[in-house]
What we know:
The chain is mainly α and 202 residues long. Helix content is 56%, strand content 10%. It has helices at residues 6-18, 27-45, 64-71, 77-81, 104-117, 122-128, 132-137, 148-154, 161-177, 180-196; strands at residues 24-26, 54-57, 60-63, 84-87, 90-93, 144-145. The longest helix is centred in the first third of the chain and has 19 residues, at 27-45. The model has no long low-confidence stretch (mean pLDDT 91).
Amino acid sequence: MFQLNQRKAVEAAAILLRLAHERIMDRKRLLALLFLADRKSLEVTGRPIVGGRLVALEFGAVHSEVYDLIKGSGRNQPEWSRHFANESYRVVLTDEPEIRALSDREIDVLTQLSDQWMGYGTWDVARATHTEEYNKVYRENTSTPIPLEETIKAVGRGGQKDAILNDAEEKAYFDKLFSPEHALAVKLANALKAKHSPKKTR
């Protein structure tokens, strides 16, 4: 699985909301568009935009971690809440983030999807996430994980499945290696080591 890139999630949601009427959108619609954008990016480049754990819910496929952020219970919640607020079941863009993590190609995918679904209702967009991989795993009244392998096959990249899965594993490793949490852990470990190591005497 490609790990969630929260910075890209913030930027991608901001772009979609910027293109929406009055910068407000039903959360189902936002989650559906993010899923469709990730799926399109995986089809074209072999990598999603946002990444993270996908689940099949009754109304459609969603990024469960982004859904948690919208509901106010995600990891690193302050970064999301700095830019978005909730009005009932809608998400509002309150402060535009600087777009620095998304590539031009990823921005194009998001913009094209926004244009494609402009004028369609929220439930139309949600139903569009009832894709081949969604229908394969969904069980009524459950939250069912959608394996990356199934999405890879569904978008026509089954022949590159092993390469894409290896890429996801390597990316997850390096993301963890260079994460602020890992850097802090290393710093603390080094400090403890220095504190408990015997002092040299002359």
